[in-house]
Amino acid sequence: MENNNSEPCFNHLLVDFFHRTFMHYALWFSEARHQLGDEKAYNLIEKVWKQSFSLQLNRLSKTLGFDIENNIPAYFNNLDAGKQEEILSSIAVNWLANDGIWFQAIEFEYGMNEAKRCNDSCWAQFSPFEAKAIKNMLNLSENPGLEGLKKALNFRLYAYINEQEIVEEKNESFIFRMKKCRVQEARKRKGLDDYPCKSGGLVEYTTFAENIDKQIKTSCIGCPPDPHPESWYCAWKFEIDLFED
Q1: Phi and psi at residue 133, in whole multiples of 5°?
Q2: Which is more confident, 238 or 6?
Q3: 224: cis peptide before it, omega within 30°?
Q4: Maximum pairwise Cα distance, the chain
Q5: How far apart are the first and last CA of the chain?
Q6: DSSP code for 46
Q7: Counting beta carbons within 10 angstroms of the beta carbon of residue 123, is it exposed (0 to 12), middle (13 to 18) or buried (19 or more)?
Q8: Are 41 and 104 in the same domain?
Q9: Which terminal residue of the chain has fewer beta carbons within 10 Å of its beta carbon, N or C?
Q10: Count of Cβ atoms closer than 10 Å to residue 167 Cβ
Q11: Which range of residues forms the domain containing residue 68?
């Protein structure tokens, strides 16, 4: 509720302060990429995030009076594994919802072509970021090969939303399939055709794999609008030349 002077109340300021902080952080990274290049920007964000998160969390813990354990509020460490998994899934679903809200905002205002163009460009930036974040979190080597990619795929945000599988594993390749996709299944329930996500998927999976190991090559087996069986929505082949110098 606003006061008589029509100034924003605490609730509005609290939410807006968080929003501005997130945006300022993202814009710093965007400008670092623009001015310094990808490699330097990614090296910087790894250092900046650790320092910034720790600083912000400690300050909030003193202000709000909560304890910190293992670099997160102690409350989360005391939850059982099932509840922790539920929280991670909920955050991942919120991430996907945010993605959809942006897409539809552009689609309704400027049309599907503009929305898809922005979507694909966004994935070209987010997918490498997610790959590098996971790579650092898992302490993977510079070129961890296909085994490193398999591990990394299990920690994507999508892995906590959709149902995926790895099949036809060989020393030099494997196939990754999305068996259940939250977006596509929601469209299916509404009687809509599959969302044609192949253009975005080509960017997403190729750049993700390359940023886990630059030697990994990605090819699409099938992705909407391609026809696909009932057992999966999209499928991708990842391979590496074991004899490459």
Answers
A1: -65, -45
A2: 238
A3: no
A4: 73
A5: 66
A6: H
A7: buried
A8: no
A9: C
A10: 10
A11: 9-78
